[in-house]
Amino acid sequence: ESHGGQIFTCVGALAIADALDRIDADLLGWWLAERQTPLGGLNGRPEKKADVCYSWWDLSALCMLRRDHWINRDRLAEFILSCQDVDDGGIADFPGDMADIFHTYFGIAGLSVMGRFELKLIDPVYALPCDVLDRMGIETDYV
């Protein structure tokens, strides 16, 4: 069964190997863009509710495919922000749920990839800040 997290892993491996030409970017980009729900968030597979972690998995794969403009980034950012715990901090998987470190990281990473709030840019392939990759001599151009 297709799943956003598995797709991120496969597309990332192909990006590292400089082999993204081996996949149909339009077809896969369409499938990923279809993961955006009416709430603005992304899900990992059809018929599932949106989950903040896919703001990383799906969005990063779309960035690597150069198809991230196929989703509504403003609605995605609104969804991520609606999952914040304004009292105790952090970001949950879904509005009203309990925040955790996993979803907090992926929510912030998604906001970063979209260039929101002057966050340091996180590279969608390596999930590391771009300035760290620069210091390591790793060149990517996906953000």
The SSE order reads: HHHHHH
User: What is the average per-residue confidence, as pLDDT, rounded to a whole number?
Assistant: 95
Kindly state the percentage of residues in helix. Answer: 40-55%
- By DSSP, the count of extended strands is 0
The major sheet is characterized as: none
Distance between the termini: 29 Å
Description:
This protein has 143 residues and is mainly α. It is 44% helix and 0% strand. The protein has 6 helices and no strands. It has helices spanning 4-16, 25-33, 54-64, 73-82, 101-113, 130-136. α1 runs parallel beside α3 (54-64).
What are the SSEs and their pairings?
Layout lengths: L3 H13 L8 H9 L20 H11 L8 H10 L18 H13 L16 H7 L7
Helix pairs in contact: 1-3, 3-5
Summary, kept brief:
The chain is an all-alpha fold and 143 residues long. It has helices spanning 4-16, 25-33, 54-64, 73-82, 101-113, 130-136.
Keywords summarizing the entry:
44% helix; globular; 143 residues; 6 helices; mainly alpha
